[in-house]
């Protein structure tokens, strides 16, 4: 999960999910997280995901998608819907989500 | 630094900076980080910043701005230019940066 997405293109979409974890249910959360990563990769239009969380439980996950339609399909996925509900009820005390269109992108990807 | 930006609006811009820290110069890095946070807040068009870094040194910082012009002014700021150079030379082994336009935003901001 802790790696760079090097293939982001202008015109792709980024979903920035910023959330404060509760201290509840670490095992269940980690299991579901792994499953969601696996499932997202099978979705049409998936580009990649980057994620970081500090020791204080504040974390940012950015997923990249080829289109708004791909984001809508992922949001509506039945298994993902269960994860979203558990997130709201149990795993996160607070969150913000932004859907953005990528205008441009650069970095050390060519070298690293 | 570890808090939510609740005032992001459609039409704002998000700069997603994803980077792997080296283990070099922790003190210098933290000092500069604090200074850059302070300085960014004085820039015209600054909306806010969210940041998270895991124990493995992989981190994501998202800054929000009212316009592309505001992003350009911040990138060109003399003191920030020094920080960018030190980042490339010393603090980060690898990074990716994306400039994005915010399409929509939601979350628990109304409650939290």
Description:
The first copy, chain A, has 112 residues and is an alpha+beta fold. The first copy, chain A, has a single domain (13-101), classed as Alpha-Beta Plaits (2-Layer Sandwich), CATH 3.30.70.100. In chain A, 34% of the residues lie in helices and 37% in strands. The first copy, chain A, contains 3 helices and 4 strands. Chain A has helices at 26-40, 68-76, 78-91; strands at residues 13-21, 46-53, 58-65, 92-107. The first copy, chain A, has a 4-stranded antiparallel beta sheet. In chain A, strand 2 and strand 3 (58-65) form a beta hairpin. In chain A, helix 1 runs antiparallel to helix 3 (78-91). The longest helix of chain A is centred in the N-terminal third of the chain and has 15 residues, at 26-40.
Would you state the CATH class of chain A? Answer: Alpha Beta
Amount of helix of chain A: 25-40%
CATH topology call of chain A: Alpha-Beta Plaits
Average pLDDT over all residues of chain A: 93
Order of the strands making up the biggest sheet of chain A? 2-3-1-4
What is the chains' assembly state?
Answer: homodimer
**Percent in strands of chain A:** 35-45%
**Count of alpha/pi helices of chain A:** 3
Span of the ends, CA to CA of chain A: 17 Å
As residue ranges, the low-confidence spans of chain A are none
Question: What is the element string of chain A, with H for helices and E for strands?
Answer: EHEEHHE
What is the number of independent domains of chain A?
1
Count every beta strand of chain A, where a strand is a DSSP E run of 2 or more residues. Answer: 4
């Amino acid at each position: 999960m802790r790696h760079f997405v090097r293939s982001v293109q202008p015109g792709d979409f980024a979903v920035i999910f910023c959330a404060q974890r509760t201290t509840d249910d670490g095992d269940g959360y980690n299991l579901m997280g792994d499953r969601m990563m696996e499932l997202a990769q099978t979705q049409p239009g998936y580009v990649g995901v980057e994620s970081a969380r500090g020791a204080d439980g504040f974390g940012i996950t950015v997923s990249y998608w080829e289109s708004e339609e791909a984001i809508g399909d992922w949001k509506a996925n039945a298994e993902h819907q269960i994860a979203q509900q558990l997130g709201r009820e149990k795993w996160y005390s607070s969150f913000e989500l932004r859907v953005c269109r990528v205008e441009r992108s650069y970095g050390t990807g060519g070298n690293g």
